[in-house]
Amino acid sequence: MKRLVKNNVHWVGKVDWELRKFHGDDYSINNGSSQNAYLIQEEKTVLIDTVWSPYAKEFRDNLEKEIDLQKIDFIVVNHGEVDHSGALPYLMEKIPNTPIYCTANAVKSLVGQYHHPEWNFKVVKTGDSVEIGNGKSLVFVEMRMLHWPDSMATYMTGDNILFSNDAFGQHYGVKELFNDKADQCTLYEEAIKYYANILAPFSPLVKAKIKEIVGLNLPIDIIATSHGVIWRDNPLQIVEKYAAWCDDYQEDQVTIVYDTMWDGTKALAHRLATEVQALSPDTVVKVFNISQTDKNDIMTQVFKSKAIAVGSPTVGKSILSSVAGWMHFLYELQFKKKKGAAFGCYGWSGEGNAELKELLKKAGFAVVEPEAKVNWNPTDEDLDGMKEIAAALLA
Fold first, then answer.
1. Nearest CA to 50 among 65, 37, 62?
2. What are the residue boundaries of the structural domains of the chain, listed by start?
3. Shortest CA distance to 144 belongs to which of 99, 85, 197, 102?
4. In CATH, what number does 3-245 get?
5. Any idea which residues carry the catalytic annotation?
6. Checking DSSP bridges between strand 366-367 and strand 339-346, what pairing results, if any?
7. Radius of gyration of the chain (CA)
8. Is the pLDDT of residue 1 over 80?
């Protein structure tokens, strides 16, 4: 069932309440999500994006109830990833000659995934436009690496709608669709989680793209995303958030992450939290066991933080595999201008801390000198020593 966005623009996507994982199992979904597609019915009828392949039949069937598919003049594919384009092959079975407007990289993506080089691709680049009637046009803006090389946004003149694709979205299911109908706290947390876990590695590009979009002086009344809410109430608020998030973002927060074998490293983690709080009562302190907490939710808190500490016991002349995997994810995200510290217990050889510090440096963290490298279980003196690490992280 289509839902009105503005004038002759309707949402025709899917609110996916049951979705729990995304990008394989790499991103956790806590509050549902949506795959947003849009139907424009001016003098020309335009479909912007589709939905994920498990809902391809539902999507096409619903669309056929609203319009004659043969009357679709063209399709805009803002991004070729399967959550946006998955229903496209099933739709194209009915309308195989329909033009598809997309970037050159999107052609590579779509042909590579679905093996239909015969589709009627119309390659566009930033500044290209196409008239859709009633004095309105669609203007295309490439959004390379936000977050794939093929990504673009589409701006509709007259109604002043920016179909922003993955930018400014979040994995959050909202039946009423719009940002003013969503729980604002949940919306903020899902938006920053989405940025921290997906877009953060591309922050320099985000900064440049925001500057470019602002420089176009386009009036934006609605930001119609590919996931989550449609921003209609003060839509530029999310642009302002992105401007802050892309600029080496941090809050007055310290996050401590660890895993443990026999609770020695756990004791160090919790004592460090106590010492940070004692030295700086206004600083937010978070403590997470990597094996017991979702990695994306932890990483959102790391993104907010000005400093982190990572702990692992030494195991097999290295660190726990749970911590090693998490550290690789940290490296992928390339956070900037944050401090890091290492701590952990060992029984025999004690290589864990050195590896943690090297991995922190590789991930872009400024590693402080104090560390806690404790033989066997920590003594009271060892625990007291956590104050030195706390002071270094807060300095």
1. 37
2. 3-245, 253-394
3. 102
4. 3.60.15.10
5. 23, 79, 81, 83, 147, 166, 194, 227
6. parallel
7. 24
8. no
